[in-house]
């Protein structure tokens, strides 16, 4: 990948976009992906599943078994170290060992409830005894029947550390998938940049023709009008009018700024500073920054279209806008 930022990728450079995109996989990441991992813990075998979709910010929804309900904030802090944007759904399921249950039945308490119920039924009289039956499910909801304390202290910390390792494995699988998809998106974005650059070069060559075309049209109209009144016009006045129009229709500044935005966009994709040096913060998410650059690119393109009356330039502006919109859709899917 060249480090020289002074030249925008020319038309046909899209063929080299794949190689550039592959070198970006550590930086460009999609916001969509899935990750899964499983591992043993003291409470059983945990299975962690992660799914992410687009979101303007970071949003994390966590579903855990009761034994980990007190660790949700700690689990989210782990996720935040790996993911910066996107809507995250994290689900943790536990498969306990045979005979292992999260809660136990206190037989003594249950037997006491049954005895009390039976005594109450007997005291109600033989007539009503046959009409009353004990519902075990209802008895289970009575205080003290089900026991099972949540992990606390050192036990809770140990279980969290075991869970953390499984969560990190799932996150690494998710990030790998997001990076792979991001590399494909970066390849497409570089191709669109090359397309826009080629269109900009065409505008540069066509823009000077606009003033000459205007001069020819204006001179023809003036001659027709003057012929009706048998009058003449000073050539200097005609040229002055053409110059005023040329100044108004000049798009050189907009073209220069659009060139600059394209260079900046590509340097951000490559994880470099505008002068070609590697960016020390290259692992930071770039989706928002690229989105802002695209807004500026669209603004300059829109100005070029409004200032130029050349039909060919107007057609090229439409093509550039279409390319920018395609880029915008992709960028909004980047972290």
UniProtKB/TrEMBL annotation:
Lineage: superkingdom: Bacteria
Family annotation (InterPro entries): YicC-like_C, YicC-like_N, YicC/YloC-like
Keywords: Endonuclease, Hydrolase, Nuclease
Bias type Low complexity, positions: 9-21
Residue span(s) of domain Endoribonuclease YicC-like N-terminal: 28-186
Region (Disordered), start-end ranges: 1-24
Alphabetized NCBIfam families for the sequence: YicC/YloC family endoribonuclease (TIGR00255)
Protein name (record): YicC family protein
Species of the source: Stieleria maiorica
């Amino acid at each position: 990948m060249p480090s020289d930022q002074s030249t925008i990728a020319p038309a046909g450079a899209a063929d080299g976009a794949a190689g550039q995109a592959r070198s970006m996989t550590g930086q460009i990441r999609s916001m969509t992906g899935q990750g899964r991992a499983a591992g043993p813990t003291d409470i059983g075998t945990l299975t962690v599943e992660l799914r992410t979709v687009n979101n303007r910010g970071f949003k994390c929804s966590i579903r855990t078994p009761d034994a980990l309900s007190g660790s949700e904030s700690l689990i989210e802090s782990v996720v935040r170290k790996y993911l910066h944007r996107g809507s995250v759904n994290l689900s943790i399921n536990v498969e306990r060992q045979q005979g292992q249950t999260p809660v136990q039945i206190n037989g003594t308490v249950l037997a006491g409830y049954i005895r009390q119920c039976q005594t109450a039924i007997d005291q109600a009289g033989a007539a009503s005894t046959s009409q009353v039956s004990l519902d075990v499910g209802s008895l289970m909801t009575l205080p003290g029947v089900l026991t099972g304390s949540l992990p606390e202290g050192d036990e809770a910390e140990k279980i969290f550390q075991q869970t953390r390792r499984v969560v990190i494995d799932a996150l690494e699988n998710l990030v790998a998938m997001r990076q792979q998809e991001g590399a494909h998106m970066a390849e497409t974005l570089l191709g669109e940049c090359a397309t826009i650059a080629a269109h900009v070069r065409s505008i540069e060559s066509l823009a000077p023709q606009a003033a000459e075309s205007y001069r020819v049209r204006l001179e023809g109209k003036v001659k027709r009008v003057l012929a009706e009144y048998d009058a003449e016009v000073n050539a200097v006045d005609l040229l002055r009018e053409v110059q005023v129009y040329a100044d108004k229709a000049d798009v050189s500044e907009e073209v220069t700024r659009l060139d600059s935005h394209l260079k900046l966009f590509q340097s951000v994709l490559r994880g470099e500073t505008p002068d070609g040096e590697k960016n020390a913060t290259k692992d930071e998410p770039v989706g928002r920054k690229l989105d802002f650059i695209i807004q500026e690119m669209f603004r300059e393109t829109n100005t070029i279209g409004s200032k130029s009356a050349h039909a060919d330039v107007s057609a090229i502006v439409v093509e550039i806008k279409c390319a920018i919109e395609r880029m915008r859709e992709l960028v909004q899917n980047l972290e």
